[in-house]
Amino acid sequence: EDDYQYDAGNSDYDELPEFRHEESQDSCKLVSGDIVQHEIFGRGRVIKIAPSSDTVHVDFNRVGMKKLALEYANLEKVEGSCR
Questions:
Q1: Is 57:47 a contact under the CB 8 Å cutoff?
Q2: Other C-beta atoms lying within 10 Å of the C-beta of residue 1
Q3: Who contacts 48 (Cβ-Cβ below 8 Å, separation ≥6)?
Q4: What confidence tens digit (pLDDT) does each residue in 68-79 have?
Q5: How far is 80 from 83, CA to CA, in rounded Å?
Q6: CATH code, 69
Q7: What would the mean pLDDT of 36-63 be, rounded to a whole number?
Q8: Which pLDDT belongs to residue 28?
Q9: What is the 3 state secondary structure string of the chain?
Q10: What is the mean predicted confidence (pLDDT) over 1-30?
Q11: Which domain holds residue 65?
Q12: Domain total for the chain?
């Protein structure tokens, strides 16, 4: 009878390295009033950043207000100062 149980000891599988999200050295933190660009939603203005929930509220020109997870939003700062 065939045994199809997984045996980690006999695996050639190497563990994947832990993924780390690293900000580039020249990136600036978003602040209210910044103009940002999003791949899908287009250009918008940061209205509010909620650090406690890691979300950003952006009023986009084409689609209106969106609440996005900062970690996954991939927002590019178009206008605004670095603080």
A1: yes
A2: 3
A3: 32, 56, 57
A4: 999 999 999 998
A5: 9
A6: 2.30.30.30
A7: 95
A8: 77
A9: CCCCCCCHHHCCCCCCCCCCCCCCCCCCCCCCCCEEEECCCEEEEEEEEECCCCEEEEEECCCEEEEEEHHHHCCEEEECCCC
A10: 58
A11: 25-79
A12: 1
